[in-house]
Design a protein that fits this description.
The structure is a single chain. The protein is α/β, with parallel strands linked by helices. It is 41% helix and 16% strand. It contains 10 helices and 9 strands. It has helices at residues 10-17, 20-28, 64-78, 96-102, 141-152, 162-167, 169-172, 200-218, 220-223, 230-248, and strands at 2-7, 32-37, 50-51, 61-62, 83-93, 107-111, 128-131, 185-186, 189-190. The chain is elongated. The protein starts with a strand and ends with a helix. Bound molecules: ligand JEW. Ligand JEW binds at residues 87-89, 113-114, 116-117, 131-133, 135-140, 143.
Length: 250
């Protein structure tokens, strides 16, 4: 899968992609990332990419022409219509389902904004506008990295075990259960006995209970869309009864 990332800060993109699972995917050629300096698509001596907003107001807006020229150049190079992703606080929430769906596109363009955002005419060339969360960042580079990372995990060969990527608990709509590794005790902190018991049925049930407890406490909104088996539904019922009893006890 190929990504073109258009930015005025190429180094903000290049360094984070060099390491880890994504870096290995690039080295192997499973992923190809081309970082494009927006200033290379300006035509003036000073390589200006921003200008004042029509109608007045604070801050600056990204000029449309360098972005149009960058997209024209990428389209000419790739020889196919582009799927262009723009990130902004006004976008639709980006989800795990979006990441999986976009991993089926051979080639994605990620447009990184700066200042107060884009001249709205740029949206004529945008396929999807997405937000990575309800907070305001200083630009689109970190969102572009987040989207690339989440999408690239679904590309076959990037993460070792493909089935595990699809089976992950998040896709089932629950938060993960707690994980432990050796030693069994550190600073008086013990690994739960059940995990050392060798009783695999008991371990499976404990993990379900922990995942459900966390989800109920931290992300009850997820439970509506979760796929639960019979045992999970029973545990959830117990936990919900327990919570009401707990409230009555103070
Ligand atoms: C985000 C791209 C580009 C995404 C998420 N737009 C805008 C904007 C900015 C500051 C003030 C007002 C509007 C900064 N900005 C971005 C912010 C993406 C750009 C410029 C972004 N949060 N923030 N989820």
């Amino acid at each position: 899968m190929t990504f073109d990332i258009v930015t005025i800060f190429p180094a903000m993109i290049e360094a984070p992609l060099a390491g880890g699972i994504i870096g290995r995917g690039i080295e192997r050629g499973t992923l190809d990332v081309a970082v494009r300096d927006l200033r290379a698509f300006t035509t003036d001596r000073h390589r200006v990419v921003d200008d004042m907003p029509y109608g007045g107001g604070p801050g600056m807006v990204l000029k449309p022409e360098p972005i149009f020229r960058a997209l024209d150049a990428i389209e000419a190079e790739r020889g196919t219509p582009l799927t262009v992703i723009l990130t902004s606080p006004q976008g639709k929430p980006f989800t795990q389902a979006d990441a999986q769906r976009l991993s089926g596109v051979a080639h994605l363009v990620l447009l990184c904004g700066r200042y107060e955002g884009f001249d709205d005419r740029v949206r004529e060339r945008v396929t999807e506008e997405v937000s990575i969360g309800d907070y305001i960042l200083t630009g689109g580079e970190l969102p572009a990295l987040v989207i690339l990372d989440a999408v690239a995990r679904f590309v076959p060969g990037v993460v070792g075990d493909e089935q595990s990527v699809i089976d992950e608990s998040f896709s089932r709509g629950l938060l993960d259960f707690p994980q432990y590794t050796r030693p069994a005790e550190v600073d008086d902190l013990r690994v739960p006995d059940v995990l050392l018991s060798g009783d695999h049925a008991a371990i499976r049930r404990w993990r379900k209970k922990e995942a459900l407890t966390r989800t109920l406490e931290r992300r009850p909104d997820l439970l509506a869309g979760a796929t639960l088996d019979d045992e999970e539904r029973e545990i959830l019922r117990e936990l919900q009864n327990g919570r009401i009893a707990g409230l009555q006890d103070g």
